[in-house]
Design brief:
Layout lengths: L6 E6 L5 H9 L5 E7 L3 H11 L2 E3 L1 H6 L5 E4 L3 H13 L3 E4 L7 H14 L3 E3 L7 H11 L6 E9 L19 H5 L1 H12 L2 E9 L4 E3 L9 E3 L5 E8 L4 E7 L10 E5 L2 E5 L8 E5 L7 E4 L11 H12 L7 H15 L3 H4 L1 E2 L6
Parallel strand pairs: 1-2, 1-4, 2-3, 4-5, 5-6, 7-12
Antiparallel strand pairs: 7-13, 8-11, 8-17, 9-10, 11-12, 13-14, 14-15, 15-16
């Protein structure tokens, strides 16, 4: 695929998350042209296409479409790897929703396929590119809180069944709190503290059955196939040690999403599920927390920012931030946290980033 002034983009998967992607990509301009969307339910694709003035195609048609340069993979997690592999085999660049694949072995396969074909691979989350994490990165990078000692990260909730109309996917293989919310938290930590060198963890499954709490299937039982509570310690290459807990079993909490401790101060990081938020910073001698807001421009729902950055970088021949290598490193950390066998001797991370 030769160099072009812009890349034609097709989106596969027209579920709930696709609306914000399509809206942001349709408005992006520059190095990216949104031209088509597809879904296994053609009616969903046609509705999205009509809304955004693009083509509706069947999934196999979009993958084979010679006019499309980059495929955005918004399918369910269990379908991520195979859809991405098909797009790469068709000569397309790929950007995948999180996680890159449901298992590390599948993600390795996707990364290797992109490398062997000389194609570009990226993936969500891209929330770390927003104002909240960027402010924290600047504070840490300037040395304002000294050398990082450690911290904690908490992705805690009672689970999605109380509000989501189809929560079964969150409790099936490829789901759970670690693979659902974990990518946001680990990506943010790696962005701020560098790569993870090792993981020690423990997990629990509190029940094998949940119940849908809303929508047309309210009252319907859900089989639980994954660990619903995971706690561990991440040892970073830098020497920092961070405790991470990810759970669908916590009914209420006042714990900040992420808190990072340095030798000269502490910062409280906004929820990495979102792009913005307010950063709290406190240094020795200060009696009050200093607030730094990301502002409205960088706090909106900017999902798709990673795709836009990737397209611009491909056209210009530059690195992009939400890379496949970052996604692979994050997924290895998450798989270790979700695996009870890591509790005994820990796990040494193989896929370091960068």
């Amino acid at each position: 695929m030769g160099m072009r002034e812009s890349l034609a983009v097709g989106v596969v998967g027209c579920g709930a998350i696709s609306a914000v992607y399509l809206a942001n990509l349709a408005q992006s301009g520059g190095a990216l042209r949104l031209v088509a969307c597809a879904d296994v339910d053609l009616c969903k694709a046609e509705a999205s296409a009509a809304r955004f003035g693009i083509r509706a195609e069947r999934v196999e048609e979009l993958i084979a479409d010679p006019t499309i340069d980059l495929v955005v993979n918004l399918t369910p997690p269990l379908a991520h790897a195979e859809l991405s592999m098909a797009a790469l085999a068709a000569g397309k660049h790929v950007y995948s929703e999180k996680p890159l694949a449901a298992t590390l072995s599948d993600a390795e396969r996707v990364v290797q396929a992109a490398r062997s074909r000389g194609l570009h691979l990226g993936g969500a989350p891209d929330t770390f590119m927003g104002g909240g994490i960027s402010i924290c990165a600047r504070i840490i990078g300037e040395g304002a809180i000294g050398e990082i000692v450690g911290g904690y990260a908490n992705a805690l909730s009672p689970g999605p069944e109380g509000w989501h109309p189809n929560p079964s996917i969150f409790y099936a293989r490829g789901g759970g709190p670690v693979l659902d919310r974990g990518p946001y938290f680990i990506t943010a930590l790696v962005t701020l503290l560098g790569p993870v060198a090792g993981v020690f963890g423990a997990t629990r499954m509190m029940t094998t059955r949940r119940v849908v709490g809303s929508g047309p299937d309210a009252g319907k039982p859900i089989a639980v196939e994954v660990q619903t509570h995971a706690a561990g310690t991440l040892r970073f290459v830098s020497g920092a040690a961070v405790n991470a807990t990810m759970s669908f079993d916590v009914q209420a909490t006042r714990a900040p999403p992420i808190e990072i401790w340095g030798t000269e101060g502490t910062i409280i990081v906004p929820d990495p599920v979102y792009f913005g938020g307010t950063v709290l910073c406190r240094r020795p001698g200060q009696k009050e927390w200093e607030e730094v807001s990301a502002g409205p421009r960088w706090s909106a729902n900017l999902r798709g920012m990673g795709v836009i950055d990737m397209a611009e970088s491909i056209v210009r021949g530059l690195p992009y931030q939400a890379s496949g290598e970052l996604c692979l490193h994050v997924l290895e950390v998450l798989e270790c946290l979700a695996d009870p066998s890591t509790s005994a001797a820990g796990h040494h991370i193989v896929h370091l980033y960068p």
